[in-house]
Structure formats: structure tokens, C-alpha cells
Amino acid sequence: MGLTKIAISDFRNIATAELSFSPQLNLIAGCNGAGKTSLLEAVYFLGRAQSFRTTHPSSVIREGAEGLLVTGQVTDRYSTAIPVGIQRDKTSIRVKMAGRPVQQLAELVVCFPFQLLTPDSHQLLEGGPRYRRRFLDWGVFHVEPAFFPAWQRYSRALRQRNAALKARALPQEIRLWDTELIAAAQILDQQRRDYLHNLLPVLGRYATGLLVDIVGLGWEYRPGWPRKSTFAEALEEGIEGDRRQGFTRIGPHRADLIPILDGQPAQERISRGQQKQLVAALMLAQAHVYQTHQGRPCIFLVDDLASELDDEHRNCVLQHLRSLGAQVIMTAIEEEAIDGSIWPEQRRFHVEHGRVEEVIY
Question: What gap in Å lies between CA 140 and CA 104, rounded to an integer?
Fold first, then answer.
């Protein structure tokens, strides 16, 4: 499982580039502003049809170009090659996989599973609940086949209920959507709990290795409504408040996963460096659980690990990545900052002013 090659046209400052990747380590080096993060962003774009750096789709198109094209080839667990391509202009996007148009981006996510570790990854802890929900749901999506259909059901019912609330509908009209909302919510909540039952012990092992100075770290899952009530009870109790506010204030769409240390959110008690170590542990644990269930490793995209972790913790993360057997595509300002000796097979690239060359060593 991995990305074997990529071709990029008119993406950020990259006019054109073609790379063939190692199934193990791929190191992309270059000065700040050279384009190495843009190259990593193009890989992410191929697997998500969006950027991890901006919410403005057209901003990734190279200045002066009408549109961009990113194509690549991934292999599945049976070593079958699957071509993937994404073309975007200022107003539209087209995605193809195995020669056919992709109707749902979930197809792309299944085909191209990866973890992304960047200098902004501390937002997983410091940011709002949506960051942690996104992390949690990525894991559930990949191991529970019923999760995505249940999420679609829940989202449709939530939109309809919110529309009724915004229109100041009567309570009996609003309740018409509650049965579907509750049924889907129960599936989402249970599957999240089942996933955490598998994830947290693994996370504990990774966290122990990376955060040796932290003792007693725990996790609190909040489903999105008060623990003292079922979702159905909480929904009924809050209907008048929902009508006043014009939206559904509780539910799985408000869930959170909070690290707890000494009875308080850990974000408030650990340093920025420790936060980065904990985020790395979260991603390693999630990759471990994914691999256990799917029988294949996911891909790691890592931006500037050398600036994020000191030598000891950086080498610890690299050892874990090697043990997982994950394909790693990583950037660094200096090649020497990354000890690649533990990978028998690797490729190295140098980026300068948007031009990419493979380094023969």
C-alpha cells in the first residue's frame, strides 16, 4: 500500500514535477520557500482533493495558470496499481480514480489513507472540538463500514431539523426529524466508543514512550450531550432552547475527545513541545489501529519534523514509523536532520524555486 509516483502541473510555485517514491522513506529537502511543503501539499491534495494549508481552493493554482493537474498512482493491499487524477480550475474540480469519475470523496479517502503531521498539528489539542472529532472520525471511518452511511443519515436529518428550527416550526414538526436523528446518532456514538476501546490502550503505549515525564494522562470522551441523559431525552429537554437559537445544540456533531491530566484538560498543563509529542503519539496509535484492522499500513506525510521535535523525540518517532512499515514522505530544511539509516530503501529529493530533483547518494 502506498503512493508509487506523482506528477504535478501548476500547483503553487511548482510548474511541473514528476517523482517516483520509495515504499519506505522519501525525504524532500530545501530552503524555506523553496517549495518542499507545496510538494507535500500536492500529495495531500491528491488524496483529499483539498489543501491542508488553505480553505480557498483556487489559491493553490500557480500564479498565471488557468488550472492545475495532479496525477498519481497508488497500490492497494494486493499490489494492484490504481491511477488517480485531480484537475482543478478557478471554478470547478474533477476527480478520477481507475479511469472513472469519483462521485464521493470518501472513495478517495479509502484508496489513499494517510496521517498528516505538520507544524500546525498542535491544533489537534489546542484547537476546538472539531479538530478532535475529525481525528476520531477518520479512525472510525476506516475500521467501521457502517459509520459513513450512519453519518450521512445523521447529517441529512440534522440539516432538515435545523431548517425547521430556523423557520420557527412548531415542536411537533421539529420532532418529525428526531427519530432518524436519534437512530443514526446511536450508531455513531457506539462506533466511536468501540473505536476508542481499541485506540486508547495503543495510544497509552506510544504516549508512555514519547512523554516520559507525564504520568497519569487520561482521556474523556464527550458524546455531545449530557451524560445523565440519553440523546433522545436530551433532545426533548432542549427543544425549546433549540427553537430559540434556531439550531440543534447537542448531538454527535458536538462530540469531543479531551486529554485529562490531574483533573484538568492536559492542554492547559503541558508545554507546546509536549503537545507535539502527544500529537505524534495520537497519529502513531491511529495508524497502528488502522493497520491492525486493514492489514496494511497507512502513509505518513510529515512536514519539517526537525523543527517540531528535539533529536531524542524525533528519532523515537522515526523508529516507530519504521516499525509500522509505513511509507513516509517527509520534508526537512537539511537532509542531515533526519537519520534515514534505519530505512533500507529510501529516496531523497531537493527542491529549489519550485524545481524538484532526485538526489543520488
Answer: 18
